[in-house]
Design a protein that fits this description.
The protein has helices at residues 3-12, 47-56, 83-92, 111-120, 180-184, 191-198, 216-234, 273-286, 292-301, 304-313; strands at residues 38-42, 66-69, 95-99, 129-131, 137-141, 150-154, 162-168, 170-172, 176-178, 238-244, 266-270, 322-325. The chain is an alpha/beta fold and 327 residues long. An 8-stranded mixed sheet has the order 4-3-2-7-10-11-1-12, with helices on both faces. It has a two-stranded antiparallel ribbon with strand order 5-6. Strands 8-9 form a two-stranded antiparallel sheet. Helix 1 (3-12) crosses helix 8 (273-286) and helix 7 (216-234) packs across helix 10 (304-313). It is globular, with a radius of gyration of 18 Å.
Length: 327
C-alpha cells in the first residue's frame, strides 16, 4: 500500500485492511514482503477511546514503575492534553507522569516551578508527577550518530520499567511539529541534554546554547539521535499515542501560542514512533480543513520531514505503515 492511500483513509473515513474493530483482519506488507507497522486511528477524542486505542496496540504497560511521558505545558498555554481526557488511561496502568525541566526561562525551568505549573494544569490531581532531573542526570549512549555521542537525561528515568509516550500532536516553533519523536528526545532530556541536542553536541550549557544553533537539518538529525538513545534504552517496553487536537502551529512549551489552526483530527497509536508521527502529518496534509496550510507551512519551513527521514535511516521505524481505523 502506498502512504498516500493510507493517509487518505483518515480524510475519507475509510478503514484499512478491512478492519472495523480493534484488530486488523489482514496483514499489510511492503514490496519486500516485510510486515508494515500498524497505526491505529479513532476520530472521536474521548477518555473511553484513548483507553480503547491503547488496548488495540496489544502491548500492556506493565511493571513496578510505569512512566507516562507527556508535556504538562507552559503556564498560560491552554492547548496541552486535558487531564480529564487521559486520567482513565494513566490511572489504569498506575502511571507516573514524567517530565524534564526546560532549557529556557519560564515556569518550567526549575523543579519547584515545574511542579507548580503541573498542579495548576491539573496533572498532579490525576497522578504523581516526577521531574526526572530534580536530583541529577545520567548519560545514555548514542550508537551510530553523526552529531551526538550521548543523550543526557534526568537520572530518575532509570527508575522506570515501561514507557508510555502520550503526546499532543501539534506544530512547533523550532522542530516544525511535535509528536512522539520530539516527546522522547527534547522532552525527556535534562536541561543540559536539551542544550546538547539544540546545539548538535557543541555545548551542554543552557546559557550558551541559543548562540550555537546549527543548520536546521542538523538540528533535526540531533533530535532523531536523541530519540535513538531512548528507544535503545527501553527496547520493547514502550508504546506511543498521539492526540491530534488543539492544532496550533506552536508547541505546548509556548506561553502565548498562535491560535488553533484547524479542527481536531483524532487519536493515533502505534508501536512505531516514526510511523505514528508520519500518519499524523499525512492526516494534516490530506485534511479538507483549509486551516491546515498554517500547520503545513510550519512543518515544511522547519524541515520537519527530515526528522522522520533520518529517524528511519537510524532504524527507529518506518514512514510506510498500515492505517487501522477503529470504530
Amino acid at each position: 500500500m502506498k502512504k498516500a492511500v493510507m493517509a487518505l483513509a483518515i480524510a475519507t473515513g475509510m478503514s484499512m485492511a478491512g478492519c472495523t474493530g480493534t484488530k486488523a483482519q489482514t496483514t499489510a506488507t511492503d514490496a519486500q514482503g516485510k510486515e508494515l507497522p500498524k497505526v491505529y486511528f479513532i476520530k472521536e477524542i474521548t477518555p473511553e477511546n484513548i483507553v480503547k486505542i491503547y488496548n488495540a496496540l496489544g502491548r500492556k504497560a506493565q511493571g513496578k514503575n510505569v512512566a507516562v511521558k507527556l508535556s504538562t505545558g507552559e503556564a498560560g498555554n491552554p492547548n496541552h492534553l486535558s487531564p480529564a481526557l487521559i486520567k482513565d488511561l494513566v490511572q489504569s496502568v498506575n502511571g507516573t507522569i514524567i517530565e524534564g525541566n526546560t532549557a529556557y526561562a519560564g515556569r518550567r525551568n526549575t523543579t519547584a516551578d515545574h511542579l507548580k505549573t503541573a498542579e495548576e494544569h491539573g496533572f498532579t490531581a490525576i497522578a504523581d508527577v516526577d521531574i526526572l532531573d530534580a536530583d541529577g542526570q545520567v548519560s545514555l549512549p548514542i550508537e551510530g550518530g553523526r552529531h551526538l555521542k550521548e543523550d543526557i537525561v534526568g537520572k530518575n528515568f532509570l527508575n522506570y520499567d515501561f514507557l508510555m509516550v502520550l503526546s499532543h500532536f501539534k506544530g512547533h516553533p523550532m522542530g516544525g511539529f511535535g509528536g512522539a519523536l520530539k516527546n522522547i528526545s527534547i522532552g525527556i532530556a535534562s536541561p543540559d541534554g536539551k542544550a546538547n541536542i539544540h546545539s548538535a553536541g557543541k555545548t551542554q550549557d543552557v546559557a550558551k546554547v541559543w548562540d550555537m544553533i546549527p543548520d536546521q537539518d542538523i538540528f533535526q538529525e540531533s533530535m532523531a539521535e536523541a530519540s535513538k538513545a531512548i528507544i535503545d534504552h527501553v527496547g520493547d517496553k514502550v508504546l506511543y499515542i498521539n492526540v491530534a487536537n488543539n492544532l496550533s502551529v506552536d508547541c505546548d512549551c509556548v506561553a502565548e501560542p498562535e491560535p488553533v489552526s484547524m479542527a481536531d483530527i483524532g487519536i493515533f497509536a502505534s508501536l512505531d514512533p516514526v510511523a505514528l508521527d508520519r500518519a499524523c502529518i499525512d492526516a494534516v496534509r490530506n485534511s479538507d480543513d483549509h486551516g491546515k496550510i498554517h500547520l503545513i507551512e510550519r512543518i515544511d519551513s522547519r524541515h520537519g520531514m527530515h526528522n522522520l527521514e533520518y529517524a528511519e535511516q537510524l532504524g527507529l521505524g518506518s514512514q510506510t505503515y498500515e492505517l487501522v481505523e477503529l470504530k
